[in-house]
């Protein structure tokens, strides 16, 4: 091979080497470009999300205006509060034949309850008889709810029923004919505030006076989660005199007053202050009238209705607990109102309700606020959304503000 041929040969080889490197360079250039596109897209997405959060936080209006408040560290779930499965031994009655039997009362072996569709039902053995309808159709949807809402129900000494309807007011109902007489109109102004959420009622032994809770002057029953999360102290206890028809405010500035129960002395009532996880004693007569103290503080759950037990104590129902050990969302949020506002900007009440862990707890509390025994149903598998425990002939009849049944638990051996 001569010199010119050697030069030509080397040039051909060099060109061949350059040609083989081109795909790698193209790949590197392409990879570099893809990385830049990915980074730009990621940054743009992050910026968009930050902008969206800023809009939500500063521009969108929150439906609630929460207040910061303090709860004590929840009591440890041990001793009387030790978790168990005793409530799962309950049987369901009238399943899928009624909805939301919040409160239960009996006259002999005949039971009465108010349901979420505005009916007052008479339960005779296996039969269900519609005694009265307080609401008016349509019923069943959230937007229709202000037309109905029976909650607390009691038997009076004169053989009639007293019913607290969240929207319509306080009624006296004849258990034989179903004739309903409205004693207190819901929605009226009393003491400068509106009766917006009438909840539970108690009647004195002589039947002259009724005491009832108005859980909020701002929120209605259908927005009860708003009331819990806002934690405003606008709830009250009121007194109605059936003879003079005078309606007066007995106590105010309570955070979600719920269940109410007269004490044997007829001079005080126990009131479940749900948001604060405690039960207050309000003095409604006697030398201490107008005063208030704490009957039991720092419960392991959020109390609903209170009813007497055969041992002289009181049955307290709780549909949500504050686990310790564990994590309580409501305790966590109590000091973080801005987080509450953000949550309610992002999610509806129905969505939030699904996120609240179900845990049913019924406890017997002795005089002095001491727990005697408790029955649990973690996750509410048998008795869900418990609102009241009514004792009769060795059995505990358990109401619910959402479930389509009444649960009954045999207390023998428990």
Plain-language structure description:
The longest helix has 56 residues. The protein has 414 residues and is of the alpha+beta class. Helices cover 21% and strands 37% of the residues. About 2% of the residues have low confidence. It is globular and about 85 Å long. It is built from five helices and 26 strands. Strands 1-26-25-24 form a four-stranded antiparallel sheet, with no helix packed on it.
In short:
By secondary structure, this protein is an alpha+beta fold. The chain has helices at residues 3-58, 224-230, 329-333, 337-346, 349-355; strands at 91-93, 104-107, 110-114, 119-124, 127-133, 150-155, 161-165, 169-173, 180-185, 189-190, 193-194, 198-203, 209-214, 235-241, 247-254, 257-262, 268-273, 278-283, 292-296, 301-308, 314-321, 359-366, 370-378, 386-392, 395-400, 406-410. The chain is 21% helix and 37% strand.
């Amino acid at each position: 091979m001569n010199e010119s041929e050697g030069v030509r040969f080397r040039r051909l080889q060099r060109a061949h080497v350059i040609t083989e490197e081109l795909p790698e360079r193209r790949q590197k250039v392409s990879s570099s470009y893809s990385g830049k596109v990915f980074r730009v897209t990621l940054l743009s997405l992050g910026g968009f999300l930050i902008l969206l959060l800023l809009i939500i936080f500063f521009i969108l209006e929150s439906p609630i205006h929460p207040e910061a408040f303090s709860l004590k560290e929840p009591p440890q779930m041990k001793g009387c509060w030790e978790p168990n499965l005793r409530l799962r031994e309950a049987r369901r009655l009238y399943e899928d034949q009624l909805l939301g039997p919040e409160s239960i009362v009996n006259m002999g072996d005949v039971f009465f309850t108010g349901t979420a569709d505005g009916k007052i039902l008479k339960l005779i053995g296996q039969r269900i008889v519609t005694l009265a309808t307080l609401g008016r159709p349509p019923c069943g949807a959230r937007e229709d709810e202000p037309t109905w809402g029976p909650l607390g129900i009691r038997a009076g000494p004169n053989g009639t029923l007293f019913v607290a309807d969240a929207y319509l007011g306080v009624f006296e109902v004849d258990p034989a004919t179903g004739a309903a007489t409205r004693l207190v109109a819901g929605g009226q102004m009393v003491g400068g505030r509106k009766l917006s959420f009438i909840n539970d009622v108690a009647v004195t032994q002589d039947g002259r006076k009724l005491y009832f809770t108005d859980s909020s002057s701002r929120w209605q029953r259908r927005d009860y989660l708003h009331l819990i999360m806002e934690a405003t102290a606008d709830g009250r206890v009121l007194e109605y005199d059936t003879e003079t028809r005078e309606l007066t405010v007995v106590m105010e500035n309570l955070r979600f007053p719920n269940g109410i129960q007269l004490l044997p002395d007829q001079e005080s009532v126990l009131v479940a202050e749900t948001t604060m996880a405690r039960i207050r004693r309000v003095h409604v007569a006697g030398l201490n009238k107008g005063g208030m103290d704490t009957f039991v503080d720092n419960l392991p759950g959020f109390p609903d209705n209170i009813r007497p037990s055969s041992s002289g104590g009181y049955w307290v129902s709780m549909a949500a607990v504050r686990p310790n050990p564990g994590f309580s969302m409501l305790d966590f949020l109590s000091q973080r109102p801005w987080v509450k506002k953000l949550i309610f900007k992002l999610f509806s009440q129905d969505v939030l309700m699904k996120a609240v862990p179900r845990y049913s707890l019924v406890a017997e509390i002795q005089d002095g606020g001491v727990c005697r025994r408790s029955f649990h149903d973690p996750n509410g598998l048998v008795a869900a959304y418990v609102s009241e425990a009514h004792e009769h002939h060795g059995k505990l009849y358990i109401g619910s503000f959402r479930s389509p049944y009444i649960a009954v638990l045999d207390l023998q051996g428990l």
